[in-house]
């Protein structure tokens, strides 16, 4: 962390020194940018000017190859007026390095961060004006990447206008047009953005695919919102290309790890995956939503969102799996509002199964079993109060009030499932409600009641000792009563076995 002295020094330099210094010289125009940024190479194999590890603002070896602009002496006249000396100093190699570094630093550390504030439009005006005046000095890749991070399309467009006067940009743009495969470097950023802007006009499928691949490899410098605006903004609405971009960006193996941890991006991909006629859409959705997918842990998942989407798409099996996962996930299980939302949706889905579906004389027994199990599970592990007997009774009443209420087979099926799934105690509490509401006949209840009592007996036996151990225990007790032994006799081990050992503390 910076000390107080460092913070004060930065504040002094940025707020007091920089504004005065910027007014002390006449900035070069965009067309003269080539005098400040001597080209470092002619191909894509050269290292770009933007290196994240060096704070993004180093000038490299710009002082070499300045062709007569790096010295003040030589054959020039010894006497010069002040204006000539200043103009020569502005083109001196060392001065160029320092000027470009400082102006880029001021732009990225002082002006651009203000775009995250409340007065974005005013700050954006200032930033655009700064680019128009001092753009020749700006380090293009880092400024463009930062503008993309701040989602300032206006500033991105202004920087791309500036890029037309950058020699490196023009060289890369030409090579990208003819190269079939390139490895991304930061110096390519402006050229890739230009190719992206021209994507709607590109008719060649292979070229379009290559542009999408470049955008994927350039993430996070090329932000998804830029691709979205190009593909789906304005007159063009090419959601197919945008979906292809997201699928490649979020691919579990070939995609970007950081992108898969962007929750909003993953949610957008899931929504688009469920669109009608989407190739591989269902399988892509399952990669994220299903806990049985081998890839689901690679993504930052919003389980509430996935649950709601699954329900809206009538994917009930996925829905109940997600409810179960929410209950088992501590970050969700400790949130009463989240669990209440899941409980409400679970109740709505179960009522739909009992009221709407029985019109076709069918009842999904497997689904009903899962629902009743989840009611019990929520009641056991969650901070919200769940009356399992009431929930079960409400479902039974809904069935009895449905158009198929006279179908004894459906009623018997429901009661069998209830007796088999929920605990005997909750089953009996559910039946107690029927005596006052007269919702079930004796013929319907007796088989279920028999099953409930059987389950209760099995449960009781499970809680007791096994029959063999029970007989041994009874024999020991009978023998102890027939042959009482004085306390505190025998060796330590026998007294311990008989439970007669005492220890003085």
Structure report:
- This protein has 505 residues and is an all-alpha fold.
- It has 4 domains: 18-72 and 79-197, no CATH class; 203-301, no CATH class; 316-464; 469-497.
- The chain contains 26 helices and no strands.
- Helix 19 (336-355) packs parallel to helix 21 (388-400) and helix 23 (424-437) packs antiparallel against helix 24.
Q: What is this entry, summarized?
A:
The protein has 505 residues and is mostly helical. The protein has helices spanning 4-22, 33-36, 82-90, 93-111, 120-134, 140-149, 153-163, 167-178, 189-197, 205-217, 224-232, 239-249, 257-260, 263-273, 281-289, 303-312, 316-328, 330-333, 336-355, 365-381, 388-400, 408-421, 424-437, 442-463, 467-482, 492-497.
């Amino acid at each position: 962390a910076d000390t107080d002295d460092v913070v004060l020094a930065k504040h002094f330099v940025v707020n007091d020194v920089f504004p005065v210094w910027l007014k002390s010289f006449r900035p070069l125009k965009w067309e003269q940018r080539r005098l400040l940024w001597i080209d470092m190479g002619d191909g894509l194999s050269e290292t770009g000017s933007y290196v994240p590890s060096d704070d993004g603002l180093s000038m490299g070896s710009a002082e070499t190859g300045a062709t007569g602009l790096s010295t003040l002496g030589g054959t020039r006249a010894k006497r010069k007026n002040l204006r000539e000396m200043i103009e020569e100093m502005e083109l001196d190699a060392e001065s160029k390095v320092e000027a470009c570094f400082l102006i880029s630093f001021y732009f990225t550390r002082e002006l651009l961060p203000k775009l995250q504030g409340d007065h974005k439009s005013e700050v954006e005006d200032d930033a655009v004006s700064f680019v128009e005046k001092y753009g020749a000095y700006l380090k293009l890749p880092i400024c463009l990447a930062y503008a993309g991070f701040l989602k300032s399309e206006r500033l991105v467009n202004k920087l791309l206008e500036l890029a037309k006067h950058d020699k490196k940009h023009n060289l890369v743009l030409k090579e990208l047009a003819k190269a079939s495969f390139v490895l991304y470097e930061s110096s390519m950023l402006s050229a890739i953005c230009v190719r992206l802007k021209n994507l709607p006009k590109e008719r060649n499928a292979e070229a379009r695919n290559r542009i999408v691949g470049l955008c994927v490899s350039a993430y996070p410098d090329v932000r998804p919102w830029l691709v979205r605006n190009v593909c789906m903004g304005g007159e063009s609405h090419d959601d197919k290309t945008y979906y292809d971009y997201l699928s490649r960006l979020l691919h579990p193996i070939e995609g970007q790890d950081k992108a898969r941890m962007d929750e909003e991006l993953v949610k957008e991909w899931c929504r688009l995956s469920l669109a009608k006629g989407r190739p591989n859409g269902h399988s892509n959705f399952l990669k994220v939503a299903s806990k049985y997918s081998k890839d689901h842990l690679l993504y930052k998942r919003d389980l509430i969102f996935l649950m709601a989407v699954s329900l809206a798409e009538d994917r009930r099996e996925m829905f109940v799996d997600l409810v179960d996962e929410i209950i088992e996930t501590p970050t969700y299980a400790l949130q009463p509002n989240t669990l209440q939302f899941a409980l409400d949706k679970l109740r709505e889905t179960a009522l739909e199964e009992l009221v709407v579906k029985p019109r076709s004389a069918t009842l999904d027994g497997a689904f009903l079993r899962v629902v009743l199990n989840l009611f019990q599970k929520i009641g056991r592990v969650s901070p919200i109060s769940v009356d399992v007997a009431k929930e079960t009774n409400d479902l039974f009443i809904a069935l009895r009030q449905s158009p198929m209420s006279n179908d004894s087979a459906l009623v018997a099926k429901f009661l069998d499932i209830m007796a088999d799934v929920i605990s005997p105690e909750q089953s009996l509490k559910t039946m107690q409600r029927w005596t006052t509401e007269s919702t079930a006949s004796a013929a319907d209840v007796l088989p279920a009641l028999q099953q409930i009592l059987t389950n209760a007996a099995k449960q009781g036996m499970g809680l007791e000792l096994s029959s063999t151990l029970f007989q041994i225990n009874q024999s020991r007790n009978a023998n102890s009563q027939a042959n009482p032994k004085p306390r505190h006799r025998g060796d330590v081990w026998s007294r311990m076995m008989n439970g007669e050992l005492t220890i003085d503390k």
